[in-house]
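If you are new to this repository, start here. Below is one unmodified record pulled from the training split, so you can see the exact layout before writing a loader.
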Amino acid sequence: MTVVAYRFYAQLNQVKKAYNLLLMLIAIMALLLIIYSQGFGLSREISVTILITMTVLKLLETYSMRDALLVVMLCYFVTMTRFLYSQDMLLVFYLLSSAFVTTHALSVLNHEKSLTWFDQKQIKSTASSLALAIPFAVLFFLVFPRLGAPIWGSPDIFGEGKTGLSDTMSPGSIVELFMDDSPAFRVTFKDGVKPANNHLYWRGPVLWHFDGLTWSRKKHKYARNNIKQYSSETEVEYEVELESTGQHYLFGLDYVVDAPEKTHLLPDSILYTETAVNQLRHYQLKSLLLNRFYQPLSDFDKTLLLDYPVQQNLKTLTMMQSWRQAAANDLQIVNRALQWFNQSEFYYSFTPPPLSGQVIDQFLFDSKRGFCEHYASSFVIMMRMAGIPARVVTGYQGGVDNGEYLLVKQSDAHAWAEVYITQVNQPGYWLRVDPTAMVAPERVESGAREIMDSKRNFFDFEWLKNSRESMDKYRYQWNQWVRNFNVSKQQALFRAIGIEHRDGKSLALMMLGILFTTALISLLPLWWLKRRKFTALQKLYLQLARTVKSQPELYATHHQGIEKFAAQLSLAYPQASTHIDHFLQVYLNARYNKGHKNQQQTIQHLKLTLSKIQAAIQK
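And here is the target side for that same chain:
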């Protein structure tokens, strides 16, 4: 802003050209600051930042037409860099407006007679130029060779976290997501049958370690086996469209049967991909809607899942030790804890009081107000204190039925617990337990947003939420047809038009044919807009001229004006001269007299006179 303000001041006050040495020092200083803040190396951020900075600094030495044109051309490249971060539908409209402003600036610079930016003719000319470019942009989008993954989605170069769940959880982390209504992912179910809301637990990072405040996950070195034997009654197939997160986690319903290509299931059933999700990701899954999963647990893992900070939360520890002594088995302790949450004065709140120090004791016995992360974290520690292996599972719960797909938002982020149940002479299994559902069952049945009585923020209006969900339907179609137009879809398009092998000759012929057709289609609207249009008076004059079209020499004089044509016509047909003179006078008066009224009556009178002229000529 400082540079732009200086440029405006310099232009108004005709400041002389700055010294080149000073400009060089400013550029070097800006480059060093960029490297200091962004780091040294090849990255998207440092490359884009340097381009934008140098484009702005170029204004300091813009004194000639060549400099101005160079700045405008650099603005095109700056606009294009925004696509390296997102290809969302709404962003495209914003960038189209940026392209319009830049193109209009180029048009103004190339018209020496231009005195204003808001010349109506130049604005129309700019709009026509961009409209002419749209068919060619669509053509190149469809046929231009594509990489397997765009460079802006390469995790080796540009991978970094953006939004969504992470592999840690501390008080307030999921509440922050609850304030965000942006899409996390979209799901389409096979045959369009959506499971009940209380089955929609979208599994994400599973957290094992607790340091008294923050939960973190365990690093695994091997994968979980696929589920080979199961009942088809619990099976559900679906496709997920995951938004870019910068994380390595994919989300699926408990429990995923097998991992899709280039992903694998970790032992705690996390769906994990080696490459970070830095672009829109589509994958198909098959899951079993179960709340328990039979799986052996090693002694080492069991020890990890019984760990909790010692000398902390002693009040909770005393209570759980007494429960342990009174219980006959682990399930009794689990049920007693759920009953305690249900019957005690616990409240579900997205604005709980802050906790510090003995956070479990403070929550369970003092504040009793919390979000899902508070209930899941406290429940897992309670189970561990009672000698039951347990862990926290984070992910999403529920979703909005948005017509042909299920929309899961960041505000649907949720945390629940898993406990490992062992019984005599029976295999152990993981049991999903959601203590939040015992405090606020409507959270699981209707969604987190539906149970809130107050607004989350100033912009939390029902109509705004509904409009965002409606807009997401268009965004979903945009993703299907534009953002997800990859190599395989392009190959399918080529096969549909008869190109099986994309050799150079076939592509060149196809490009020439489509370019020629596109050019014709693009020029037709321009011809239609620029074709000559005639008024009702002019059409009557042309009808008069066509009366003598069989006489080329006489007919040609109508291009010289109605007065000369009427004089020549009267000489050729003296029997019609009276009517011709009358037609001339009425025509001139109607067309050039600004005070003339009754235009429709005049048209009818001229038509009658014209018929008399034609009748006289034919005699």
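Two things worth knowing about this chain: Residues 149-161 have pLDDT under 50 and may be disordered. The chain is about 50% helix and 15% strand.
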